[in-house]
Specification:
Blueprint: E1 2-4, H1 12-27, E2 34-41, E3 50-55, H2 58-70, E4 74-78, E5 99-110, E6 116-132, E7 139-144, H3 155-175, H4 180-187, H5 192-199, H6 207-215, H7 219-271, H8 276-291, H9 295-309, H10 318-330, H11 343-353, H12 358-373, E8 381-385, H13 392-403, E9 407-411, H14 419-422, H15 435-443, E10 449-453, H16 466-473, E11 482-483, E12 490-491, E13 497-502, H17 510-514, E14 517-520, H18 526-544, E15 552-553, H19 556-566, H20 573-591, E16 598-599, H21 602-609, E17 627-634, E18 637-649, E19 654-657, H22 662-677, H23 679-682, H24 688-691, E20 692-697, H25 711-723, E21 731-733, E22 736-737, E23 743-744, H26 749-758, E24 763-767, H27 771-774, H28 779-782, E25 786-790, H29 793-800, H30 804-807, H31 814-822, E26 825-826
Parallel strand pairs: 1-2, 2-4, 8-13, 8-14, 9-10, 10-13, 15-16, 19-20, 21-24, 24-25
Antiparallel strand pairs: 1-3, 2-7, 3-6, 4-5, 5-6, 6-7, 11-12, 17-18, 18-20, 22-23, 25-26
Helix pairs in contact: 3-5, 3-7, 5-7, 8-9, 8-10, 9-10, 11-12, 11-13, 18-19, 18-20, 22-25
Length: 829
């Protein structure tokens, strides 16, 4: 195989070689039918063209030697593929193109490393017919192509040749590296065949494109193809020149500006004036002195200021340092707003903005009281936990107003990048501080109230764990020296009052949860919702919808109708939406000229809002055995849960549906195991599991459900199914069960009880160990409920079912009902 030498510029010697090739072509009047094959890599030989080659393969060195001795022609053909390095490798027919050139060797020189350098001249295009094995080198049958003789009278052919010369002239002028001798030689070529072949070697034309030119025998097509390739090379050169000129202009402009600035600097010095850079340096120095930074931050600021003073404004890093100094000097290192420690004022503000939430209000007043006695106390880290719409975020605003502090809020929901908290290091392009530093700069004081919403919805991925970054921020012992990656100097966050909100606690990492003081904001009872609607929601919606004050009146009965018939939530957001819908209907009528005062009645509410969306007055009646009402706690508050059980012919298979979690499935397994183990005591046929399959379903199957508190409800539904006794329709229950029949305590009692009462339940069964939690339920709710605290499943059976006379399953059990009433524990009066 042969490698093409480094690409040479066409020069006078090459033009001489081409003339010599023409003389040889005249001598070679007959080409043999079979010629030795010289495969070329990344090179194409054209007729009348000279090409330098370096030969390293022993086989092809011998071929060159023989060709020189016998003045024999060779067939040079380009390879389609082959080894990247020179090896003793023999290509096959599939490795070479079908068209090549008959060549002759006109010059050869041996090198010290046994390689050979030679120059070959093309004689004629030819097509390869077949290969013969290498002995000692390959030969092939070749069929030369007849060159098309140009007609001097063909105007179109002359125009193509003329156009090709003109484009070549433009290319030579644009590139600037084509020798003038070669240009003159091309311009004097009258043979269109030679012109097309010569110019196919000019410019950025790839070996594959040159091979296509070699294979194109018709003269017109060949001229057109070479012309298009030359135009493409010309376009590349012109674009490169344009870019080069832009770079030169830019560099010239920069140098010119530098010289002018230096001259301006000397002129200003003579006049006693300062340039913009000097003025900016002096301003930064004054800002650093006024900022009263800690020692470490002050040193860092002065160090960067010295670098800025020594750096020309045109430097790339100039604006980076300038931005950094702006952040350092704009932060409120020593600016502290004065707290309003008037406890009566604080209590008044909190009561004005929120109805209820006494625990939160008491905690804020306690903080202010201690702050009056101890000025240097650290601010607490409060965590408000509760369902949506109970006033967590608005309570934070009220706290800031009561204390006369700036209020800022940042949402953490969906945050996955640790840099959102700590910022980016300055080594990154476009780096900025974290959101905390942004908030402090915007607040203008170092002791604002910062509310971090939705901390339970923080994510994490390859960019870090924001929850872990908050461990330092929300720890009063560590945030004294909070280090933002961008600032790279400590900032004291201990004066900031952080308030964190969440819907649930279990998704917050335990280490982060341990650093916060958790205050639960439960859902509102109906009385509280009524007061909130009257005091805040109705006036706000009347004003938001442009109605005059007093034009629309909402009596208590109408508001209660909206609460009971159109909403089912722990908070008050949906109530405000429904009130807003009513106000919009009234505003439409008012805009149409109906200006008389409107009294909203339940009938008008149904006219404006449509038919009631729910019937919360009474829980759904349990008309068949196998259904029981449980109580659930969700991130949006409490709710009741219907659990259904059914059986079918089969044997020893338990099916659970309703998108249940693993813990809830385990509760169903435990309930079934206890029923089987105590079937005789419970009045259940002992062989029920041998002949039947059991199916337990929790409706609302699209909603995921999990937790152990449905254990007693699943047990009750199973016993009801297998004994044929109906569960009381006014009763709901909650509690975890064990294999020994114990009823274990569960969480969320307050939310569950309030949800059950809203749904019309009047009797509740709950674990005995949840008595303390039940005391947190508002007195108004406890007065309406009858609660039984149970320790075992045997006690549950006594209370959960209707009298046998009502179900037709046997004699009346009035004694059991009487004993149940004696053991009933009512709410605190």
């Amino acid at each position: 195989m042969a490698d093409k030498d480094k690409v040479r510029k066409p020069d006078q010697d090459q033009a001489g070689d081409m003339e010599k090739a023409g003389e040889i072509h005249e001598k070679k009047t007959r080409i043999p039918d079979r010629l030795p094959v010289l495969p070329l890599r990344d090179a194409v030989v054209f007729p009348f063209m000279a090409l330098p080659l370096t030969i390293s393969s022993k086989t092809f060195v011998k071929l060159i030697d023989d060709a020189m001795e016998t003045e024999q022609n060779m067939f040079a053909i380009s390879m389609i593929n082959g080894p990247k390095r020179e090896e003793e490798w023999t290509p096959g027919p599939e490795d070479v193109y079908a068209v090549g050139s008959v060549v002759t060797v006109v010059k050869m020189m041996r090198l010290p490393d046994d390689n050979v350098q030679c120059i070959v001249h093309g004689v004629s295009r030819a097509r390869l017919s077949d290969f013969t094995p290498a002995n000692p080198y390959m030969t092939a049958r070749v069929t030369p192509f007849e060159e098309e003789e140009p007609d001097p009278r063909d105007k179109e052919l002359q125009a193509l040749a003329h156009n090709l010369r003109e484009n070549f002239g433009k290319f030579a002028e644009a590139s600037g590296n084509v020798p003038q001798e070669f240009v003159m030689m091309v311009m004097n070529l009258n043979d269109p065949n030679r012109l097309a072949d010569v110019l196919s070697t000019v410019g950025n034309i790839t070996p594959d494109e040159r091979q296509k030119v070699l294979e194109t025998v018709p003269l017109r097509k060949r001229l057109s193809k070479v012309n298009s390739l030359l135009l493409k090379s010309l376009e590349v050169v012109e674009i490169g020149n344009k870019i080069q000129n832009k770079v030169k202009d830019s560099m010239g402009k920069t140098q010119r500006e530098y010289v002018l600035r230096e001259q301006l600097k000397q002129i200003q010095e003579e006049l006693g004036e300062k340039d913009e850079k000097s003025v900016e340096i002096d301003e930064f120095r004054e800002k650093i002195q006024a900022a009263q930074m800690p020692e470490e931050a002050n040193k860092a600021a002065l160090r960067e200021l010295d670098r800025l003073a020594k750096m020309p404004p045109s430097a790339a890093e100039y604006n980076v340092i300038r931005t950094y100094l702006e952040w350092l000097t704009d932060l409120p290192w020593a600016k502290t707003s004065e707290d309003n420690l008037d406890l009566k004022h604080a209590q008044k503000v909190l009561d004005q903005d929120h109805y209820g939430l006494e625990e939160v209000k008491d905690r804020i007043v306690e903080f202010l009281a201690v702050r009056r006695l101890k000025k240097d106390m650290k601010s607490p880290i409060l965590c408000f936990v509760g369902p949506p719409g109970v006033g967590k975020t608005s309570m934070g605003r009220s706290i800031a107003r009561a204390m006369n502090r700036e209020f800022n809020r940042m949402s953490l929901g969906g945050v996955r990048d640790e840099a959102e908290i700590r910022g980016h290091r300055r080594t990154y392009v476009g780096a900025l501080p974290g959101r905390l530093i942004h908030i402090l700069r915007r607040a203008g004081t170092n002791n604002p109230v910062i509310m971090m919403d939705e901390v339970d919805k923080i994510g994490n991925d390859f960019r870090g764990d924001p929850a872990s970054a908050l461990l330092e921020v929300l720890d009063p012992e560590q945030n004294v020296d909070f280090l933002d990656h961008y600032l790279d100097v400590p900032f004291n966050l201990s004066k900031v009052m952080f308030i964190v909100t969440a819907n649930v606690l279990h998704t917050i990492p335990s280490a982060l949860r341990d650093r916060m003081e958790v205050i639960e904001l439960p859902g509102y009872i109906e009385k509280e919702k009524l007061e909130i609607a009257k005091r805040y929601l109705i006036p706000r919606q009347i004003d938001a919808n442009g109605l005059p004050a007093g034009h629309v009146v909402f009596p208590d009965k109408a508001v209660c109708h909206i609460i009971e018939e159109y909403t089912a939530e722990a908070g008050v957001r949906n109530i405000e939406r429904e009130i807003g819908r009513v106000c919009r209907k009234v505003a439409r009528d008012y805009s149409m000229g109906k200006s008389r005062k409107i009294l909203i009645t339940p009938a008008k509410i149904e006219k404006y809002l449509g038919k009631p969306k729910r019937q919360p007055s009474k829980a759904e009646r349990l008309s068949v055995p196998g259904v029981a009402i449980g109580m659930a706690w969700t991130p949006v508050g409490g709710d009741i849960l219907f659990i259904e059980a059914n059986s079918m012919p089969g044997g020893k298979r338990l099916t659970l549906t309703g998108k249940l979690g693993d813990v809830m499935k385990e509760s169903a397994q435990i309930a079934l195991t206890y029923v089987r183990a105590n079937s005789k005591k419970l009045g259940v046929p002992e062989d029920f599991y041998d002949k039947n399959d059991i199916h337990i379903h929790v409706p609302a199957g699209a909603i995921p459900k999990d937790g152990p508190s449905a254990g007693v409800t699943m047990f009750t539904a199973l016993v009801s199914l297998l004994t044929g006794r109906r569960v009381r329709n006014d009763m709901s229950m909650t509690g975890e069960i064990s294999l020994r029949g114990l009823v274990l305590p569960v969480g969320g009692i307050k939310e569950k009880v309030m949800a059950a009462q809203r749904a019309g339940v009047t009797t509740i069964l709950m674990p005995d160990k949840n008595k303390v939690d039940y005391e947190e339920v508002p007195v108004e709710v406890r007065k309406k409920l009858q609660v039984h605290f149970i320790k075992t499943l045997n006690q549950l059976v006594k209370y959960a079912f209707e009298d046998e006379s009502e179900t037709g399953a046997g004699a009346a059990s009035g004694k059991r009902r009487a004993s149940a009433k004696k053991s009933t524990t009512r709410g605190k009066k």
